[in-house]
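Good day; I would like, with your permission, to put a structural problem before you. A protein sequence and the structure tokens that stand for its backbone fold form the material at issue. The record follows directly beneath this note:
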Amino acid sequence: MKFSVCVVAGTLAALGFSAMAGESHVAFSADVVVTYDGKATTQKIWSDGVRTLQVPADATSGWYSDSSRKLVWLWNKGSPCIQISMPPPSENSETALGRATIAGHPTQKVRVTYARSMDGKSTTVSQVEWRAADLDDLVIRRESASGSVYELRNIVRGPPAPEHLAFPSPPCKYDAVADTTGYQPQAPGGYRRVAFFDIACKKIVPLKLAMQIPSDFEIRLGGRLGCFAGTHEDLDRLLKTADEVDLDSLRRGVIWVRISMGATYDPIGKHFIGEQGSDEHWAEGLSKTTGAANVKVVPGEKAGIPSLTVHASVAGKPVRMLYLGVGDSPAILISYQAPKNASDRDETEWKHFLDSFARAESP
């Protein structure tokens, strides 16, 4: 079984991963019997409620997940181990089908219909699950509409031995560039912490920085334009056309991260250098060349990294920029693109972003 992008979903289903993802935090070990395409395979599964390992007797294939990191690793004989983001929770509806006892476990039988989106197409998948009441509703049997069956047998509740949950290295390793879990939005109403490496879409030197963005902001690469953080709907409109941004389409603000095309940092003189010369001349230069009003250029640092904030108003629209200096090289530019109807909320979100910078232990 080859692990390519186009068969990952089927591979996960075949290995029984979907029966474990996000359903129960119970610690246990068990035998796994998966019937897929008319063939039955038996494997072993161990879980402490956060980390889960499922492998056959020879361990030549299997999967390992870590829900605290929202990552899954899969490997197969003859194929390299791949790392993928854990599938996000799906919208679903449930219909109770009664109760049954399976291998001594009292269960609730439920038909679950999941709404899924893949390659821009929405589909629904219906499955029947048996959830064990004495195992914190762990799914111990699942039947799909296609006829595949997933079963847990000989279940032993309790934490497995540490060696059964060790990270499978070899054949796997953690790949920071492939880890896109930090790109995913969360429920609206607060802020979430992200690494600089994530908010730069892994395209800029991995600074040991972290900051906070609105919790419902998604992070998305905009081709050669750079990296953007905003609501899913805003990013769809903003990046509808390749290599262009439609700033007039925004309903809320968007954070834009890229390498500056017109500013560098001078570590000897400790100044940012741009079209107006050294940064102490930027305020006057911006006023003259762009007609900007209320220009404020403030040097400082963010968690030990030289910075320069630029606040101004051009044609009545707020301009909010942050430059970061790393060595003798082009500056990193982070701007806040406000919508046409900019409000106090935009100023609050930008200020929170600037104030939230902190040193991170790793990129």
Q: What stands out?
A: The chain has two domains: 5-165, 181-359. The first strand starts at residue 28 and ends at 36.
